[in-house]
């Protein structure tokens, strides 16, 4: 077999056999190199150079900050404020779950992490109020998808490093699409709740009580504004923002809330290392695989193939979205981004698409992947919290998947939704 055949056939074969993704990438890359005269030293060199990327420092820091905020009660305060605003309406707790996910997404950067943080509080609350467990799980898992679109976003950081585009630009580009999809989820949650007659909290809205709650939760509510305001205002970079997020979480959780003990901080560090450790190994091996794919001109082959199908950017974009949609059912989000970015970037560049706009399309498509079995990571988290079978939960998220798909098509074919603000602020592709 030629090196190209080993790369294109070997990787799917390894994944079908259930071999971990980072091992599959490493083994296939090694076998392909053994068929060439390229020295094997290229593997450790590429891994070292790939991991020696300053922006990657933001990922473990954002994970740590989000974990500390969750463990010390900041997430709970955010949820209380949101419930005060929308809790009384039909399906108010479902809408509150989505809005809480949107708010928590601005400090976490993780989809499953957002489901776990918000769902662990909101799913039991919905069940106590007579909401169906299926509904509660579907709303929580769907809202959690916003964790990778509303900045900061770990997949955006990975894409930015590999595609060599401004991470700050990606963060800003995800702002409006995130709100569009978030409010689409709110509409679905409200519509389904009305259909099944799920009520609100029955609590009267009183301004004095609401303002008192906001004041009591001021440190939790300020977190996204401190982090994102600094990035958008050009005060600090995304990496610096991640460090500030950790410091903010430590100060508020430890000094203001007085809930952060040494043992709890150790648990937060452990969760962070368990989350980022496998990701670090995946980044290294995927960079080797991507380098070999580029070396053997696979992206150019794909470009020629798609060009032979159609020269229309509308059609080619739809084909790419469909391909990513299907692949997302079987491959984890970060793996998809790391493997396919070097392959697809030349294709979209030839189409004249802005790399930042494509990054948003890439991330939104992977939002759908969080809700589609057999992988569907958010579904597995929500199913444990709601205590419902995967099959039932998968059926109840279908309206939310339809909402994301419709929003994705609007975002894909109206690129100004994503790119007008980054370009206005001079944060386009690098």
In brief:
The chain is mainly α and 430 residues long.
List keywords for this structure.
mainly alpha, 430 residues
Describe the structure.
The protein has 430 residues and is mainly alpha-helical. The chain has one domain. The chain has 23 helices and no strands. Helix 1 packs antiparallel against helix 2 and helix 5 packs antiparallel against helix 12. The longest helix has 34 residues. The chain is globular and about 75 Å long.
Largest sheet: none
What percentage of residues falls in helices of 4 or more residues? over 70%
Cα(first) to Cα(last) distance is 38 Å
Mean pLDDT metric: 85
Strand content: under 5%
Number of helices: 23
> Order of helices and strands, N to C?
HHHHHHHHHHHHHHHHHHHHHHH
**Secondary-structure-derived class:** mainly alpha
- Molecular shape: globular
Uncertain stretches:
none
Q: Got a strand count? A: 0
Number of domains: 1
Nearest-angstrom radius of gyration?
A: 22 Å
Could you give the topology of this structure?
Elements: H1 3-16, H2 21-34, H3 42-51, H4 58-71, H5 74-86, H6 92-108, H7 111-128, H8 133-144, H9 154-163, H10 167-173, H11 175-195, H12 207-216, H13 218-232, H14 238-256, H15 262-295, H16 298-309, H17 313-328, H18 333-350, H19 355-369, H20 377-386, H21 390-396, H22 398-413, H23 416-424
């Amino acid at each position: 077999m030629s090196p190209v055949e080993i790369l294109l056939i070997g990787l799917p074969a390894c994944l079908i056999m259930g071999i971990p993704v980072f091992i599959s990438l490493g083994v296939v890359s090694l076998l392909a190199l053994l068929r060439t005269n390229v020295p094997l030293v290229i593997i450790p060199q590429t891994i070292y150079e790939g991991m020696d990327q300053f922006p990657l420092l933001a990922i473990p820091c954002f994970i740590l900050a989000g974990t500390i905020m969750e463990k010390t009660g900041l997430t709970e305060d955010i949820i209380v404020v949101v419930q005060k605003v929308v809790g009384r309406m039909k399906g108010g707790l479902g809408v509150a779950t989505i809005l809480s996910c949107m708010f928590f997404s601005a400090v976490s950067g993780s989809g499953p992490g957002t489901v776990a943080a918000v769902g662990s509080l909101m799913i039991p609350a919905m069940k106590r109020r007579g909401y169906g467990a299926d509904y509660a799980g579907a709303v929580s898992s769907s809202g959690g998808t916003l964790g990778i679109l509303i900045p900061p976003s770990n997949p955006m950081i990975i894409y930015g490093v590999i595609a060599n585009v401004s991470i700050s630009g990606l963060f800003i580009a995800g702002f409006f699409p995130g709100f569009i999809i978030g409010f689409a989820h709110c509409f679905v949650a409200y519509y389904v709740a009305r259909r099944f007659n799920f009520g609100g909290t029955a609590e009267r809205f009183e301004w004095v009580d609401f303002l008192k709650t906001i004041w009591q939760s001021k440190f939790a509510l300020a977190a996204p504004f401190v982090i994102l305001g600094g990035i958008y205002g050009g005060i600090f970079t995304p990496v610096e923002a991640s460090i500030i997020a950790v410091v903010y979480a430590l100060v508020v959780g430890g000094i203001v809330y007085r809930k952060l003990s040494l043992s709890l901080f150790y648990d937060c560090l452990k969760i962070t290392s368990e989350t980022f450790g496998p990701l670090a190994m995946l980044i290294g091996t995927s960079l080797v695989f991507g380098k070999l794919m580029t070396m053997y001109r696979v992206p150019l082959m794909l470009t020629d193939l798609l060009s032979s199908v159609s020269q229309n950017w509308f059609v080619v974009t739809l084909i790419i979205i469909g391909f990513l949609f299907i692949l997302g059912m079987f491959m984890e989000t970060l793996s998809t981004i790391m493997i396919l970015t070097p392959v697809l970037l030349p294709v979209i560049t030839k189409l004249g698409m802005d790399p930042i706009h494509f990054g948003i399309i890439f991330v939104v498509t992977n939002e759908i992947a969080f809700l589609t079995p057999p992988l569907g990571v958010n579904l597995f988290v929500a199913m444990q919290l709601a205590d419902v079978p995967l099959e039932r939960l998968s059926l109840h998220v279908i309206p939310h998947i339809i909402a994301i798909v419709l929003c994705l098509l609007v975002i894909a074919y109206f690129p100004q939704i994503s790119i007008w603000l980054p370009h206005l602020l001079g944060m386009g592709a690098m």
